[in-house]
Amino acid sequence: MGSQRGDNGATPNGGGLPDLPPEWGVVIIPDDLAELTRESTQVRRELRWQTRSVRWRRRLHLKPRKAGQESVGLGLPLLIMAVALIATLTSLFALAWPGASGHQVANPPRRTGTGSGTPSGTGPQVADLTLVAADGSRVQLRNSLPAVVLLADGCACTDLEFDTARAAPAGVSVLAVGQVAPALPSPVPIGLRLRALADPDGRLRSTYGGSPPTGGVVAILVKGTGEVIRTAPGVTKVDDFAADLAKLT
User: What is the per-residue pLDDT across 225-243, written as a single tens digit (0 to 9) for each?
Assistant: First the structure.
């Protein structure tokens, strides 16, 4: 394997080489240099580790390690950075997470002034209410648009309802609405889009009947987009709002 020099690595006098430091201990020179492979691999590993250590110290703005100074591990700085990163991501996630209910509160429908009954420039959106037909089936108001809604609580105004259905443009429904579905002659003439629906809670009357809500028939003209283009209170004949029917299509 190798031979140990009896002079502890010292060269003979006159060899031209100085004595080796005594702290090196016993020096063994192997006969086969391949036996140094393990030692050279260990040296390369230590050099690579030192190179990585210097690179990370520069990235973390740490002072370079002085010669002879014990190596200080990078585990603690990396741990601090990881904790700070996790805390930042947790804060961002908490800000982006919706509230406990997970739903936004819908704004209540805007009330439309009805003092003059004149058309408004840009009407509010009609509330998406669920009305009840005479046979007990439920009808979504927005599924019946465009429409002329006639709030006819306790009103014997069948003529107004039929005249409105005849004057309405093609594709426009006429909805006679009350807290109880108004009575219509049966059967309704073919070709007329006329229905009687109930609004048990009176939400349409409370929203579009003025403040405080007034009696009489209130005509609400709603486009297919849900925009209320006119609210006309106290109507008695279709001529009171006929000029705006064409705007529904």
Answer: 889 998 888 888 999 898 9
Distances from the Cα of 53 to the Cαs of 78, 81, 131, in angstroms? 12, 16, 74
Cβ(240)–Cβ(117) below 8 Å: yes
As for how many domains the chain has, the answer is 1
- Judge whether residue 221 has pLDDT over 80: yes
pTM: 0.50
In whole angstroms, give the CA distance from residue 247 to residue 127.
Answer: 20
The DSSP code sequence of 126-169 is: PP--EEEETTS-EEEGGGG-SEEEEE-TT---HHHHHHHHHHSP
Domain extent for 151: 130-248
| Residue 40 maps to a domain | no
Question: At residue 105, does pLDDT exceed 50?
Answer: no
Spacing of C-alpha 103 from chain mean position: 10
Query: Which CATH number is 163's domain given?
Result: 3.40.30.10
- The answer, yes or no, to whether residue 139 has pLDDT greater than 70, is yes
Please indicate, yes or no, if residue 52 is contained in any of the structural domains.
no
